[in-house]
Amino acid sequence: MNAIKRCRPLLGTFVEIEICDAELPERVLGDLAEIAFGRIARVQSLMSFSDPASELSRLNACGHLHPLSINAWTRDVIAEAQRLGKASEGVFDIAVAPTTDSWGLLPHLHVRQKHEEEEATFRDVILHHDGRVSFRRPLRLDVGGLAKGFAMDKAAEILVDANVGSAKISAGGDLRYVGKWPKLLSLRDPTATAKLDRRLSAKVTGPAVATRAAYFANRCHHWRKSSHILHPLTQKPMRSNVSVSVFAQSCVQAEALTKVVLLDEPDSWKALLKKERATAVFVTAKGEVVPFLSAA
Fold first, then answer.
1. Are the C-beta atoms of residues 15 and 33 closer than 8 Å to each other?
2. What pTM was computed for the model?
3. For the purposes of burial, counting CB atoms within 10 Å of the CB of 221, is it exposed (0-12), middle (13-18) or buried (19 or more)?
4. Could you give the CA distance from residue 271 to residue 266 in angstroms, rounded to a whole number?
5. Which of 1, 9, 54 is closest to 25 using CA atoms?
6. What structural domains and CATH numbers belong to the chain?
7. pLDDT tens string 131-184
8. Sign of the dihedral defined by the CA atoms of residues 117, 142, 121, 245, in that order
9. Helix, strand, or coil (residue 22)
10. pLDDT by residue (tens digit) across 16-57?
11. CA 8 to CA 11: how far, in whole Å?
């Protein structure tokens, strides 16, 4: 069995790709990893919120003035965000950037009066039939986690097309498996300290998993520690110490659903998980693992 492992700083974190195959030589596996990294880098260059030269930054600056032609990948991510925004009734909203910015959670790269943007939602984004995109009013999109998941899915496509035996792509709390996936996933215990990083186990129920939690909160707002996870409707940060991992068929889907599960009412997110054929695993503030196997 031939195997390679590569790592690159991308998407604001470290992206790691592991590939195993019984027939393909290590040189070919290494080439496949480089092509996969190239796809991830392409998504980053298109959709980075912090890069003033990115396509997303150009759209945020001019989208309310006139329709813009954008890359098909960027459009796909925005379209998926709109679909999930409608499905969650606004709990997932990529137009929350102004609120996130006001809490000091985004780079201060854009100058615009907050009152011009604070009422905007994903519904103010228009996807034109000719492929262009425009905004009904000034707003700023932040596709952060969604773009990360999309990048991992695009990287996985390369490995699926090459028919590799198995592969794993990991990036900042997200995992994408190709081929056979493991039976168990190691999760961080929220009750663990910096000196003692205890791990818990959960059953893997899909090829893509995203984990989201507030236990790494290190920002203060009004002298209180604040999570980076904000509710688009209340504009308040999540204060719970729980974490959730969502298993789905794609990372872009799992990424969005983690936020919905953490912020929405149980009846609502349970119905959405069933509709999306996804499952969830919670790790409580007491270090207990609680699964929700909606797709069973």
1. no
2. 0.86
3. middle
4. 8
5. 1
6. 55-142 (1.10.3980.10), 181-292 (3.10.520.10)
7. 999 999 999 999 988 999 999 999 999 999 999 999 999 998 899 999 989 999
8. negative
9. coil
10. 999 999 999 999 999 999 999 999 999 999 999 999 999 999
11. 10
